C-alpha cells in the first residue's frame, strides 16, 4: 500500500491527444499566452463536444458560463502541456476527460478521499523478494483476478475501491472465482473502524472491518450508490472473507514491485492532487 491521495486527476495521462493541433501550435506557443490559444468560437465548439461526450448539463446559464471558463483554462493547460511534451520538455501527455470542467480544488475536494491516519494497523509488513528474482512483467488483468474498471463518482471513497480490488484479487486467486465485491458496504459500514464514508478512509480500516465482520457483501447484492447511507450489510450475501492483511514498506518501490509480482493486485493510494 502506498500512501497519498487517491483516484485520478482531472487531466490524466493519456497518449491520444490530436497531435495535428499540437504540431500546428509548436511555433505559436513561443509568443502566445494561454488566453490567446482559442477564440470564443473555437472554445464553444470544444465545450459543446465535451458536454455531448460526457452528458453534461448545467442548472443555469451562470453555472454553464462558469464551467465553460474552467473548461477553457483546463483545455489551454492540456494543449500547452502537450506542445511541451512534443518538444521533449515533458515526459508524458495529458488529455480531456470527464473532469475537465472542474477546478483542481474542486476535484481534490470531491475525489481525494485517502486519509492517512497515522500508524499502520497491519500486524506485519510484506517480506520483499529481491527485484532480481522477480519476473520481467506481471499483468493480473490477464489472469482473471481483476474486475472491470469501476467509478467512484463524486464521493471520496477511493480507499474503498482500492481495498475491494485487492480483496477481489486475493479471493479469485484462492478460489478460482472472480467476484465483484461491494465498495458501498465499506462506505456505509466501516465507520467504527475509523473510515468516514464519502469523506475519506483508509484501506487498513476497510480490511479490519471485513475481518471483524466476517465478510463483505457482493456488488450485486449491495450496489454502489456514491453517497453515505445506512449500513445494510447482509450476512447471507457475503462474497468474500479475509483472515489477515499486511502492509508494504512505505516509500519503497522495490517492496511494492515485489508485492505486485508475488502476491497479486495490491491496494494503493495515488497522489492525484496535482493538476497534471
UniProtKB/TrEMBL annotation:
Peptidase C1A papain C-terminal domain boundaries: 134-276
GO biological process, one term: proteolysis
Boundaries of every Cathepsin propeptide inhibitor domain copy: 47-107
Family matches, as PROSITE patterns: THIOL_PROTEASE_CYS (PS00139)
SMART domains the UniProt entry points to: Inhibitor_I29, Pept_C1
UniProt KW Iron keyword: no
Origin: domain of life: Eukaryota
InterPro entries reported in the protein's UniProt record: Papain-like_cys_pep_sf, Pept_cys_AS, Peptidase_C1A, Peptidase_C1A_C, Peptidase_C1A_papain-like, Prot_inhib_I29
Pfam family, one: Inhibitor_I29
Transmembrane segments: 21-39
GO terms, molecular function: cysteine-type peptidase activity
Family: Belongs to the peptidase C1 family.
UniProt name for this protein: Putative cathepsin 1, partial
Species in which this protein is naturally found: Reticulitermes speratus
Gene it is expressed from: CTS1
